[in-house]
TrEMBL record:
UniProt xrefs under CDD domains: BTB_POZ_ZBTB_KLHL-like
PANTHER family linked: BTB DOMAIN-CONTAINING PROTEIN, OS06G0674800 PROTEIN
Classification via InterPro entries: ARM-like, ARM-type_fold, ARM_At1g04390, At1g04390-like, BTB/POZ_dom, SKP1/BTB/POZ_sf
UniProt protein name: Armadillo-like helical
Top-level taxon of the source organism: Eukaryota
Transmembrane segments annotated in the record for this chain: none
Pathway noted in the entry: Protein modification; protein ubiquitination
Length: 999
């Protein structure tokens, strides 16, 4: 038995030498000078400076003898449990000389001791180290920052909450900001470590970002540091900018702060810089590219250098032993992520082609050997296909292939119509990429019929679709030619399989199809529909009927799909973004609807105008033409994404219906035929005339009106303008003018083919490009925002001339109130009866009934100013604007400020009920529910709602309070509420308990 124990001890002590045990003994002799036993167990306590110094040096010497082989020894773990309290207590004594030594030893300990052991006592390490960041001694601040940097680099997310609590208690962020702001001439290492630590904190804890980006003094210092010649400091500043820009509000602050962040970003991405600095620049660019404002500012300010940097990042690399280094791969991925700007239209596309993007993509896709093969003068199509198959099957940089397809698809979708081979550096390289994409698409589609576990095949499928429907005739023709040949084998079987799958889905038959496979099926059908030799077979097999039933089912049942591997989100690193609202996207969660409508529109497009196919169409669908138009209009109105709305409108153009349906447009369109409140007469050359509402024409089609303003004598005594006449050109036809005004008023029009030609001329003259595109039946351009029906510009100087009613808010006068149009001191808006009456039946009854209000120049609305602004914006745009603060802006408001943000929506909720504004009522309810985050706010809302008899709102707030009911009742916080309201909360609490018990 003794022999066995001896062997085990020897095994445990393997790698430990006599020096280790000597230093270990000295360590504990030193620790013994301060170790005390009390009721809470052993603790270390010593105030003698020399003893502290002796202990720290003993710890330092002991750490020096620990190697990677011995670091996991049980003695090490036991020793660390005693070292950390001693070192931490010493550091907190605030003696300058000992602090310098102790902070350096902390850094050594974190470097030497395994992460798992440090994490077991991480709070005991973080507390003294973060507390010591308040020190005014530079070496201490540097060492403590370094130690925390190391700890946060490997800290498990399970400890996030505990560690963040310690950092808050020790005011770590405030101390770091203070040091950076007051850094002055401190050494570069000081800024490097403090800025890097701040970046790590901001990345890990998004809630910490507000106090950083909201500090103007800090941003000013960072701007100065961005000019530092020391590259590591520049990289640290970029890293901090990137973590700030992970917050939407922070990104906006950086973009609004001037050029330092963008300038530093672009300069750092230059290929002459070391990889770490380039990567820091690309990371910031990727954060800025997350929303439209960032993309536009980068492209407007630094388009050419930005594109050059992306091209160099994608191409400036080489293989070593057949592999890319980790740094090179990170840089290429960073460049790929920034290249997502290709997915949006803009002037940057011409620079990409000019710099040979096709050859750059080819280098990412195939190895040098195959590139040399392509340089041979004479290669048959069969040889090219063989090389392409070889390249697709090769395992050459596989992680980059989805990026290549996304970039290629974005380029194809945003090409100009006149794009040609003269704009290319290598026609052969582009053609080979097209061949590879088509081949990859065919193979992936046919393979996914058997198995589709992930989204790896979607990028190549989408790229081929975008090439088939590219505005560039050259790219579209090349892609169609290659794809037609590749699909020849089994094409009929493919089409039949797709249509059967879609038909089964829309019929409610269970069919085990993943979201990804369904998307690829829809993309494949759209591609087949774009190829003449296969389109006939799709039509023959009731493709239009099946697709229409499919999209109708999607719209009726509000079917949405989660984002998959779309070009917006193809970067695979973890970015903890915050405060970003969902940007209106081209496809959003409606990919099925988008690709279904695209395929359907393409099939209808090749049938020509449906006027010649009404009988056939009705027979196919068992619907009347009017019913079909109504169903597609509903899809356009109810869809949240631009893509489905564009393709729905495009589809409607083949039924003689041109424009963009919307709820507000339909309401405003109802007043087109009414003469009430008209104040503009459009006179044609033959003296025929049309009465119109000047404000709607001014906002929706200003080209119909003269550019000069009305003369002052045209004003009435109320400050409003009377009627006026505008004479139109002799080329304007009366019937065409009426149809154009139909579009101006409602956002869409109905016209026969005989009138369309005249409408095209008139729309072109009036610069109504979206209408002209629909009249010409041009395919929608990928990622082009759908035109919105928005009249809010009429509330500014653009519409003052046509205002005929003033809306006054309740409340006192504002001392600093100033109006551009009149001298009234009461907060008010200059509005327009025609829009108010069209948008709201209550307003119509008020203003058109002959009652006293209809004769008045102003109306008092029982709303505060903020609520009135939102109400009128709703009437003019169908949107509840401005939106309440969100994200960190919201979370950093105090309780009163939050309530002030919510109260306008509570006011509107009550008013919308009595005014029968159902959609506004629902939207206010949604906003209030999203903003409820405190019991006090909920109690106040209950009180207001009860006074206004809004019992649904009372129930909403009561459900929020329900989990806290017993605590509030016992504390007496509910005494201010009427007994009936307390009972509502009690019932909500009981129901909550019953549901919990049931679960």
């Amino acid at each position: 038995m003794r022999s066995s124990s001896t062997k085990q001890l020897a095994e445990n002590n393997r790698g430990l030498n006599g020096r280790f045990f000597t230093l270990h003994s000295r360590l504990y002799n030193a620790l013994g000078l301060g170790l005390r036993n009390d009721e809470g167990g052993r603790r270390w306590c010593c105030t003698d400076v020399e003893t502290q110094r002796h202990v720290v040096r003993s710890i330092d010497a002991f750490l020096d003898c620990i190697s990677s082989d011995t670091s996991q020894h049980p003695l090490i773990k036991e020793s660390v449990a005693d070292i950390v309290p001693a070192l931490g207590t010493t550091l907190l004594q605030k003696n300058e000389a000992v602090m310098k030594l102790a902070s350096k030893v902390f850094v050594k300990m974190v470097n030497v001791i395994p992460n798992s052991i440090i994490e077991s006592c991480v709070l005991d390490v973080v507390h003294p180290v973060s507390s010591s960041l308040s020190s005014c001694h530079v070496p201490v601040v540097i060492s403590c920052s370094t130690a925390l940097n190391l700890i946060l680099s490997y800290l498990s997310s399970k400890r996030d909450r505990e560690v963040w609590k310690v950092l808050e208690e020790t005011e770590t962020i405030d101390n770091i900001i203070h040091h950076i702001r007051c850094g002055g001439s401190k050494p570069a290492e000081f800024f490097l470590e403090t800025i890097s630590l701040l970046s790590k904190i901001l990345w890990r804890w998004p809630s910490s970002r507000f106090c950083v980006w909201n500090d103007d003094g800090l941003l000013e210092v960072l701007g100065s540091l961005s000019l530092e010649p020391i590259l590591s400091v520049r990289a640290a500043v970029l890293q901090l900018y990137s973590t700030i820009a992970l917050c939407s509000n922070g990104a906006k602050k950086l973009l609004d702060s001037g050029k330092p962040p963008l300038r530093l970003m672009v300069e750092s991405m230059d290929s002459l810089n070391p990889n770490f600095l380039q990567l820091a620049g690309f990371t910031l660019a990727e954060c800025f590219a997350a929303n439209e404002e960032g993309r536009l500012k980068m492209i407007e300010s630094y388009c050419e250098p930005l594109v050059k940097a992306i091209i160099h990042g994608l191409s400036n690399w080489s293989l070593h032993s057949g592999k890319l280094s980790k740094d090179q791969m990170s840089l290429i991925k960073g460049a790929c992520c920034v290249s997502k700007i290709i997915c949006w239209p803009g002037k940057h596309h011409s620079y990409f082609w000019k710099l040979g993007i096709e050859s750059v993509l080819l280098k990412l896709f195939i190895d040098d050997f195959h590139i040399k093969l392509l340089s041979h003068q004479f290669l048959s199509s069969e040889e090219l296909e063989a090389i392409a198959r070889d390249c697709l099957s090769a395992n050459f940089l596989p992680v980059l292939k989805p990026h290549v397809w996304d970039i290629l698809g974005g380029l194809a979708a945003n090409c100009a119509e006149d794009f040609n081979v003269q704009m290319l550096k290598s026609e052969r390289h582009l053609n080979f990429l097209i061949t590879c994409a088509c081949l990859g698409f065919v193979d992936s589609f046919r393979s996914t019929r058997q198995s589709c576990q992930n989204a790896v095949n979607e990028p190549v499928s989408r790229a081929v679709l975008l090439m088939i429907y590219s505005p560039s005739k050259y790219i579209a023709s090349e892609a169609k030619s290659v794809l037609s040949g590749l699909l020849k084998l089994n094409a009929k079987e493919d089409i039949k399989y797709i249509l059967n799958t879609l038909n089964a889905t829309s019929s409610g038959i269970y069919y085990p199809v993943s979201n990804n496979l369904q998307v690829i099926n829809l993309i494949s059908l759209a591609c087949y529909s774009g190829l003449p030799q296969y389109r006939r077979y799709v039509l023959k097999n009731q493709g239009i009927k099946i697709l229409f039933s499919f999209v109708q089912n999607l719209s009726r049942n509000h079917v949405h799909t989660e984002r998959m591997n779309t070009s917006l989100h193809f970067c695979d690193h973890n970015m903890k973004m915050c405060c970003y609202e969902c940007e209106e996207d081209w496809q959003g969660e409606e990919m099925f609807l988008l690709f279904g409508l695209l395929g359907l529109a393409e099939l209808v497009h090749h049938l020509g105008s449906m006027k010649g196919h009404v009988d056939w169409f009705v027979k196919q669908f068992e619907f009347t033409e009017a019913q079909i138009i109504t169903k597609v209009q509903e899809i356009c109105i109810n869809s949240c994404a631009s893509g489905p709305r564009w393709y729905g409108s495009y589809l409607l153009s083949y039924f003689g219906f041109y424009g963009f349906p919307s709820k507000l447009g339909n309401m405003i369109g109802n007043v087109f035929s009414e003469d009430e409140h008209t104040n503009l007469t459009l006179i044609l050359a033959n003296q025929e005339h049309v009465n119109a509402h000047g404000v709607i024409v001014r906002v929706r089609c200003p080209s119909l009106l003269p550019s000069r303003e009305l003369p002052l004598e045209a004003k009435t005594s109320t400050g409003h303008f009377g009627g006026r006449e505008v004479r139109l050109s002799a080329h304007v036809n009366h019937q065409a003018l009426l149809k154009l005004l139909e579009y101006v008023y409602s956002g869409h029009l109905r016209a026969g083919e005989d009138l369309v030609k005249r409408l095209r001329t008139l729309a072109k003259h009036c610069n109504l490009q979206p209408l002209l595109q629909m009249l010409c039946r041009n395919r929608p351009k990928w990622r082009t925002p759908v035109p919105s029906f928005d009249l809010t510009s009429a509330l500014g100087p653009n519409g003052f001339h046509f205002s005929d009613i003033i809306l006054e808010a309740k409340g006192d006068k504002f001392e600093d109130w100033m109006c551009e149009a009149c001298s009234l001191l009461q907060p008010h808006l200059h509005a327009h009866k025609v829009i108010l009456c069209a948008s709201c039946d209550h307003m119509r009854a008020l203003l058109c009934s002959g009652m006293q209000e209809s004769q008045s120049e102003s109306i008092k609305v029982d709303l505060g100013w903020e609520a009135l602004v939102r109400l009128v914006n709703w009437f003019y745009s169908g949107k509840l604007l401005p939106k309440p603060k969100y994200g960190c802006l919201w979370h950093n408001l105090n309780e009163k400020e939050k309530f002030d943000e919510v109260i306008p929506y509570v006011e509107l909720y009550c008013l919308s009920d009595s005014w029968l504004l159902e959609d506004l009522h629902k939207e206010c309810s949604r906003v209030i529910a999203a903003c409820l985050d405190s019991v006090n706010m909920a109690i106040k809302i209950i009180q207001i709602a009860a006074v206004c008899f809004q019992w649904d709102l009372v129930d909403l707030a009561a459900k929020f309070i329900a989990p806290h009911y017993h605590r509030l009742r016992n504390s007496g916080d509910l005494l201010e509420l009427h007994e009936e309201l307390v009972d509502v909360i009690r019932v909500a609490s009981v129901r909550l308990s019953q549901r919990s018990d049931h679960i």
